[in-house]
From TrEMBL:
Ranges: TPR repeats: 171-204
Official protein name in the record: Flp pilus assembly protein TadD
Keyword Isomerase: no
Keywords, comma-separated and alphabetical: Signal, TPR repeat
Signal peptide from the UniProt entry: 1-20
Gene3D superfamilies cross-referenced by the UniProt entry: Tetratricopeptide repeat domain (1.25.40.10)
Species per Swiss-Prot/TrEMBL record: Yoonia maritima
Classification of source organism: Bacteria, Pseudomonadati, Pseudomonadota, Alphaproteobacteria, Rhodobacterales
Length: 284
């Protein structure tokens, strides 16, 4: 009987111990899941709103501790590009695409990094390795930029059109496409595309400035009807003035410079210097 009681107690103790261990393991697993979620959130923050150099340090340290993880290698490569360290970013993306878990998206990112370095042929070579079935906004945008660099205008137009159809925010595509038309001398086509860009993103100042350049090249020396701040209005008048002067419409250019100076809420040094230079040349 005594042995039976002892055996029962031992069995109960073993079962309690097993239950306690199981509970501890469950807690550890739950905490591990939370840590993974927290790390994923932190990685996302570092890739978007974090300081670029701080993000580089974060991912460099993470890669050193976990060199086998391709997601951390991607984070490092993307952070280096954000920080303006393009050669280092290219090297990092090359490391990523050599990883067994690399994807077509990684190759596209490498192509984008190469474009930033104006290594157009290398970028084209990378894009050529991407399967034609991999169709994304970024891939076609880069294809369009490469075609532009080679003055393959029909290809560029086709790629820009495809890219614009693959995103809900095509303003930057229309802006790039418009600039391509601007460099070709198709000013009316460029004006239309810059207008499209601003229809999708009325705050995009580069598109506003490019639109003014396209209009100025056609000797349309009035500002377009677009959303603009007072500072932006002054800057756009300055751009339009330079376009007029470039086409030897000096009197119009002077008037536009004076308007820019008067419009700007603060001292507009660049416009003042340009107006003084014109007046000095006229005197001499």
């Amino acid at each position: 009987m005594r042995h039976s009681i002892i055996l029962t107690l031992c069995t109960a103790t073993i079962m309690l111990s097993a239950c306690a261990k199981s509970g501890e393991e469950q807690v550890q697993e739950a905490m591990s899941d939370i840590n993974v979620i927290d790390e994923s959130n932190l990685n996302e923050v570092m890739l978007t709103v974090g300081d670029p150099e701080e993000a580089v340090r974060y991912f460099a340290n993470a890669v050193e501790n976990h060199p086998e993880r391709v997601d951390l290698q991607r984070g490092l490569a993307a952070s280096l590009i954000r920080a303006g360290r393009v050669p280092d970013g290219i090297a990092a993306w090359e490391t990523v695409i050599s990883h067994p878990e690399a994807t077509s998206e990684d190759t596209v990112e490498l192509a984008g990094a190469l474009i930033r370095a104006s290594r157009w042929d290398d970028a084209a070579a990378q894009l050529n390795t991407v399967p034609p079935t991999y169709e994304t906004f970024k891939r076609y945008r880069f294809e369009a930029m490469v075609a532009d660099s080679r003055q393959q205008w029909e290809k560029a137009d086709s790629f820009y059109e495809t890219a614009a159809g693959l995103t809900t925010r095509p303003a930057s595509v229309y802006n790039n496409w418009g600039y391509s038309k601007l460099t070709r001398g198709d000013y009316r086509g460029a004006e239309r595309l810059f207008t499209d860009a601003l229809r999708h993103d009325p705050r995009l100042f580069t598109a506003k400035n490019n639109l003014v350049l396209a209009r100025g090249a056609q000797r349309k020396y009035t500002l377009p009807v677009v959303q603009m701040t007072q500072v932006e209005r002054a800057q756009l008048l300055y751009t339009l003035a330079l376009a007029a002067i470039k086409q030897n419409d000096i009197s119009t250019g002077k008037t536009l410079l004076a308007d820019a100076i008067e419009t700007h809420p603060r001292h507009f040094e660049e416009a003042v210097r340009a107006l003084q230079a014109i007046e000095n040349n006229a005197v001499n």
